[in-house]
Design a protein that fits this description.
Helix content: 25-40%
InterPro entries: Gliding_Motility_GTPase, Gpn, P-loop_NTPase
Family: Belongs to the GPN-loop GTPase family.
Number of strands: 7
Low-confidence stretches: 1-5
Protein name: ATP/GTP-binding protein
Order of helices and strands: EHEEEHEHEHEH
Mean pLDDT: 81
Pfam family, one: ATP_bind_1
Keywords: GTP-binding, Hydrolase, Nucleotide-binding
Strand content: 25-35%
Number of helices: 5
Length: about 200
């Protein structure tokens, strides 16, 4: 993919990564923390119309929600640019995931240990489409109330799916989540393929 106005001899490869998870797990926060540019957000205030539709149990202080997507960018080098697409978390917007997943190299599923059940839809979505992913437990307020093994068991994760803890507000920790995904993708790519 070349950039407008750039030297035609130089082209940058674009990599698309999805940041997914349930409503209120920190997707917008993670994209904002790691993006080198001001991220595009489609945040709207929660209104009375969402009462009874959006489950705010455990996230009572949440006042906004992503209604389309979040978008951020990380330039790795002159040859490589990573585009981050944060998915909307509410079930009524899940239809967008089918479009957002096209061309994605991999995904990060953010999880909240206070509400692990909101992670199941994202995990099922990527498993059913064969999209490699990692799970990152967003430790709200630095609370680590479950071990990685407890989370892995509760989410019934395949042993090959990487699982890490993070604080989605911290750039360095978000970067480490993305590096975990890249390492996972590279390991899958270099793994010997079964004979047919």
């Amino acid at each position: 993919m070349g950039f407008a106005g750039s030297d035609p001899a130089q082209t940058a490869q674009a990599v698309k990564i999805l940041i997914a998870g349930g409503f209120g797990v920190g997707k917008t926060t993670l994209v904002g923390a790691v993006s080198e540019v001001a991220p595009l957000h489609t945040e709207e205030y929660l209104t009375r119309a969402s009462v009874g539709v959006d489950d705010l149990v455990g996230i009572d202080a949440k006042t906004t929600t992503t209604v389309a997507l979040d978008f951020g960018r990380i330039t790795i080098s002159d040859d490589l640019v990573v585009y981050l697409f944060g998915t909307p978390g509410q079930e009524r917007f899940w239809f967008m995931w089918n479009d957002l997943v096209h061309g994605a190299l991999g995904a990060v599923v953010l999880a909240d240990t206070r509400r692990l059940e909101v992670s199941f839809a994202s995990i099922d979505f990527f498993e059913s489409r064969g999209v490699p992913f990692v799970v990152a437990v967003n430790c709200f307020h630095n609370v680590r109330d479950r071990t990685l093994q407890e989370v892995r068991s509760a989410l019934d994760l395949d042993p090959q799916v990487p699982l890490v803890m993070c604080d989605a507000r911290e750039r360095a920790e978000g970067r480490n989540v993305l590096l975990t995904l890249i390492e996972h993708l590279m390991a899958r790519h270099s793994a010997p393929r079964p004979a047919v």
